[in-house]
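Exam prep: given the inputs below (a chain plus 2-acetamido-2-deoxy-beta-D-glucopyranose), describe the expected output before reading on.
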Amino acid sequence: MNWLVILCWSRRNPFVSIFLLLYYLSSTVHASSSPLSNSSIVPFSSPLYHSSDSLLREIKTLVGRHPDKFSIETMRGSNKGYLAEIVVVTYNHTKRQINKPKIRVLLSFGQHGRELITTEVALNLLHFIAGERRIPYYDSQSVENILDNLIIKVVPMENLNGRKLVEAGDSCDRRNGQGVDLNRNWSVDWGKKEKDYDPYEENPGSAPFSEPEAQIMRKLTSLFNPHIWVSVHSGMEALFMPYDHKNTIPAGLAGHVMKSVLEDLNRRHFQKKCLVGSGGGSVGYLAHGTTTDYMYDIAKVPMAFTFEIYGDASASQNDCFTMFNPIDKATFQTVIDDWCTAFITLFKEGTKMLGGAQLSVSDKTTFTWDHEDLHVEDNNSNNRDGLELAVQELRNYFRLFFLSTVLLMIMFCSRISKNKFNDLTLTLNGS
Ligand SMILES: *[C@@H]1O[C@H](CO)[C@@H](O)[C@H](O)[C@H]1NC(C)=O
Ligand SMILES: *[C@@H]1O[C@H](CO)[C@@H](O)[C@H](O)[C@H]1NC(C)=O
Ligand SMILES: *[C@@H]1O[C@H](CO)[C@@H](O)[C@H](O)[C@H]1NC(C)=O
Ligand SMILES: *[C@@H]1O[C@H](CO)[C@@H](O)[C@H](O)[C@H]1NC(C)=O
Ligand SMILES: [Zn+2]
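Solution:
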């Protein structure tokens, strides 16, 4: 997310746009009068954040402390001399095997270099999963029970090369080491450009999967075949689901299930302050070639999400560090605790939803949501969801019906009074 995007979105809403324009003007006036604002505000003056090196080092030692739970690997790729490597941490508690297939979860953080807070959430989530820290809201036994059903792969820093650029002082860079936006380099609807396309920020690369980072992630996805995918970003607070490249959510049960999981997270952990819905429909701009659309459409991941975990819209647009990352300790800690907790809830609810479906079948072949399947695990909550949906639809119909009735009445009445008036004048004239 960036200012351009918000402004573009506001084009469709004239009042918001006037407001934003005023705000924008006032902030630029403010900026030009202050000699300090420059995009090279170096983020690492803040003691809250790790450098990429120290973050990865800390993750490696954490994995080393729990060989029964974690393993770590580095995947490498290159394209025309440009090298990329991605560290992947796997949680697979080998001492706790259950007698049904485990749900596979793939989480990626730091796809955009400047979104440092996301990689801190990755590190802390690993601490929580390891049992080294207690998760607020859940007791440790229930966390263990939830985790027993899962194999989780965490990519703590998808875009290491881009992150290095940010650490070298370019705190506004979201692209990879050769200037490509990794969230536009995937194949679904690749390369299509909206009117508000920003060639600098959104450079999709020369072709789908031109970037080794995208190739590695695609390979990881096809090897692991996840049931749940989350790409974690910052810049705003939102829980997004497909699609990014069009203004709709997937039809039928698939879309409904994903949406209800997100609405539940929003209610439980974020006081409903997050935007919820399709990326394309909620942000107000369409994004083409995104990872999450690929995960849903091509890789057939049944639950594919993009979480936007923090944003400060009031920050100066030159100050990317503050726009994308909390700077005070209290906010930093709240973001980490809330989102780590939300992940545990996602694991819990996702397992519940997917557990009823035929995972053994889906293990190697494509997964399809089936109405029957979903009701096996927990009929009550699903029935309630269905009922809620039906009631909601009914309400909408009534609203529409009522509205059109009122409109018709108004038209009818005004017609009558006009006719009456005409009749009256006619009689008067006639007399
Ligand atoms: C910001 O800083 C960079 C180098 O640190 C400098 O080249 C650039 O001119 C500065 N920009 C502004 C607007 O001051
Ligand atoms: C998880 O561990 C089990 C038992 O050791 C093993 O059979 C399985 O292949 C592992 N899965 C992954 C994805 O690493
Ligand atoms: C990704 O970037 C590479 C390198 O620029 C390019 O060759 C490829 O076409 C891009 N693919 C997509 C889907 O953007
Ligand atoms: C779901 O409903 C069926 C009958 O409709 C019942 O046999 C089954 O026990 C229920 N399952 C749960 C988890 O309530
Ligand atoms: Zn991002």
